[in-house]
Amino acid sequence: MRRDIFQAIADPTRRAILSLIALQAMTPNAIAEQFPSSRQAISKHIKILAECQLLEQQQHGREIYYQFNPTKMKEIDKWLEQFRNMWESRYNNLDNVLNQIKSKTK
Amino acid sequence: MRRDIFQAIADPTRRAILSLIALQAMTPNAIAEQFPSSRQAISKHIKILAECQLLEQQQHGREIYYQFNPTKMKEIDKWLEQFRNMWESRYNNLDNVLNQIKSKTK
DNA sequence: TATATTTGCAACCGAACAGTTGCTTATTTA
DNA sequence: TAAATAAGCAACTGTTCGGTTGCAAATATA
Q: How far is B106 from chain A (nearest CA, A)?
């Protein structure tokens, strides 16, 4: 049972749940109402998100409010770091080309 | 056959391939040598990465050099954008708490 | 031209995934 | 206390995934 953050955000429904929760903490029932799937299907997704700590729970009587944990999401951002300078430098290269064209037309 | 960029980076082997290719364009054989799996297994991963345009190919005779396409990776970064202000503001909140403690001890 | 090398494609296999249905537990409310 | 509500757990199902093996196509080399 592979359970890392990259696998967690691979599923479109789970990404949608994260976007929802990020705006406001919600109960499983309230979340499930936003999707065509059954409550149990959504509950499974929530379980996976909670297992890799993208969600945290807060119990209120028989209701459980799930809220988004942004610090965990930073791991994705951290992984992207190794590529970020590449797409930035590609822009720099484009800038250089544009500058060369400019200097030629002058 | 779901084939989006999030699903592409969900697999650890594919993430490793991307990190490799990002440093330098490589042929499938050269990539496969870096992994314990068979050439065909790696070739499948490459196919998936190429299908969602994270890799671009450059044919040289019978050899194919695959190179990383950083602009496509930006889509992940773009999706993260909706959460980025959250982990930044959480730091801000932490700063506020620390400042309050500081001001009390003064 | 015959042989070796590089690559891609197809078929198959076991494991994991996403979903459903049915049931139990715990808390709230009438 | 009895009924209703919220949530989690277990078993089952069809599909996808990651891997393997075997083979064909294209290019390079002897």
A: 30
